Amino acid sequence: MADPRFFRASGPFTVAEIAARTGAAIAGAAESGRLLRDVAPIDAAGPEHLTFLDNRKYLPAFRQTRAGAAFALPGLAKEAPAGLTLLLTTQPYRAYALAAQSFYPDPSPAPGIADTAVIDPTAKLGEGSRVDAHAVIAAGVEIGQRCHIGANSVIAAGCVLGDDVRVGANATLSHCLIGSRVRLYPGVRIGQDGFGFAPDAAGHVKIPQLGRVIIEDDVEIGANTTIDRGAGPDTVIGAGSMIDNLVQIGHNVQIGRGCVLVAQVGISGSTRLGDFVMIAGQGGLSGHLSIGSGARIGPQAGIMRDVAPGETVIGSPALPVKEFFRQVATLQRLAKKKGD
Fold this sequence. Notes:
Layout: E1 13-14, H1 15-22, E2 25-28, E3 35-36, E4 38-39, E5 49-53, H2 59-64, E6 69-72, E7 85-88, H3 92-103, E8 112-113, E9 118-119, E10 124-125, E11 130-131, E12 136-137, E13 142-143, E14 148-149, E15 154-155, E16 160-161, E17 166-167, E18 172-173, E19 176-178, E20 183-184, E21 189-190, E22 197-198, E23 205-206, E24 213-215, E25 220-221, E26 226-227, E27 235-237, E28 242-243, E29 248-249, E30 254-255, E31 260-261, E32 266-267, E33 272-273, E34 278-279, E35 284-285, E36 290-291, E37 296-297, E38 302-303, E39 312-314, E40 319-320, H4 321-339
Parallel strand pairs: 4-5, 5-6, 6-7, 8-11, 9-12, 10-13, 11-14, 12-15, 13-16, 14-17, 15-18, 16-19, 17-20, 18-21, 19-24, 20-25, 21-26, 24-27, 25-28, 26-29, 27-30, 28-31, 29-32, 30-33, 31-34, 32-35, 33-36, 34-37, 35-38, 37-39
Antiparallel strand pairs: 1-3, 2-7, 22-23, 39-40
């Protein structure tokens, strides 16, 4: 169902091949040999399409789907229309993501260097890499194999990129070491000065920012996100973390493995996040805080204190989620009494 001008599907794949790839169990019509040629939304899928259901909100569409096969929770198998082959799993969305990767694998860049690219003679460019028009790669840069450097991007002196890195158009990188399979979307800014100065009535005194940005393997950083380099300690983004568009990460921030930061999150300097922390859109964290592993921070939350591992907080100033909603309910009751 994807526009073929922009996306080229692989396959087809049999239901059995998809089940082996995702670990799902075949049920329903159980046509393990059925050929599937593409993925599609549940309400638009046809007999050659694979779809999924993981939210009861879409049960009406699921009951009427024309898809050839669908990932679904085991408990929802009885809701499937006759003739639908089911791929039962406790994680339908994850399974669908794996299957979609099979249909649309990330293509390797076509190797080559644009005539207008500017590459310093001391820079090293790995085999199979591509550099697009007007990109600038400065002295001493090391770029791994099969990387793609987008148009008008600038990679400043001394930066190191691992293998299979994608740098979007108009991105700028400085003072950074980047792992493998990292994706930096257009307009990303990595490694610029941190916001550090000593306040003084006679004029604020800038503090030299002498650290780096370390981005570990398998990280994605969304469009127009900015990550400042450290003042002395490094700014670190842990392996497998996913960062959305328009996120600001201050100097010395350390983010653990597998964290998720949604759009417009702001993290002030020297705050530390453990592993698998999730911060919803527009969450704001003040500096020098510790956010424990597995913590969840709600949308537009204002965090001014440490958050314990596994804790869920929301509101501004942020409170534990149960306490926040208890206060909201109390205010609603008081407002209703006053209105009566």
